[in-house]
Amino acid sequence: MKHRKTFHSIEHTGKENRKFTIAGPISTEAIEQAEFDEGLKAFRNPDKQKEALINVSKLEESRIIAATEGNKIVGYAVYLYPDEMERWSQYNYENLIELGAIEVSKDYRGHALAKHILQVTMMDPAVEDYIIITTEYYWHWDLRGTGLSIWEYRDIMEKVMNSGGLIWYATDDPEICSHPANCLMARVGSRVPNDSVHEFDRVRFQNRYMI
């Protein structure tokens, strides 16, 4: 499958009249040349995370959408094929990609950047050829930093994902089923063929008693 990517960019005014650009898919060179905010450390320290994004950006299927203030990346989302250790890698076509990470610097929360990152993602017509999934696990959420309960965080997260067209999907995946706050969310593009939808259903449900 040829991974067509069309660059889109919007300007967004956040709180206190702060100006942001949300754009992508951005290139390896753009990531290399940008500053990387020190608050982007949910997954690893900022230097290592920038290095990881540079490496991911070189993958043919990857898409990275970034929110910037000036020349500083303050938020991003990464889309790529599921890790081979995940159930979703068993999907037998090339038109399923995973929202593997979405992060906004703790110093830039409250500007609706995650919502706008997802909206820019969906501006690319090529997304209609894909099933886009995200797996949400409560142990990855910044409950301490936000002061939110599990269910408050889940509600906000679900609304953000809904803004990009991702909705809740049932599954019998053991890791997701291990806690009621965990969930699978997905967006099935309008040009995704029926056999791909059936394959997605097969991967979602592997315990025949759950179907």
From TrEMBL:
Keywords: Acyltransferase, Transferase. GO terms for molecular function: acetoin dehydrogenase (NAD+) activity; acyltransferase activity, transferring groups other than amino-acyl groups. Residues 54-119 form the N-acetyltransferase domain. Its EC number is 2.3.1.-. InterPro entries: AcuA (IPR024699), Acyl_CoA_acyltransferase (IPR016181), GNAT_dom (IPR000182). The keyword Transmembrane helix does not apply. It comes from the Bacteria. CDD domains: NAT_SF. Pfam families: Acetyltransf_1. One of its GO terms (biological process) is acetoin catabolic process. This is GNAT family N-acetyltransferase. It comes from Alkalicoccus halolimnae.
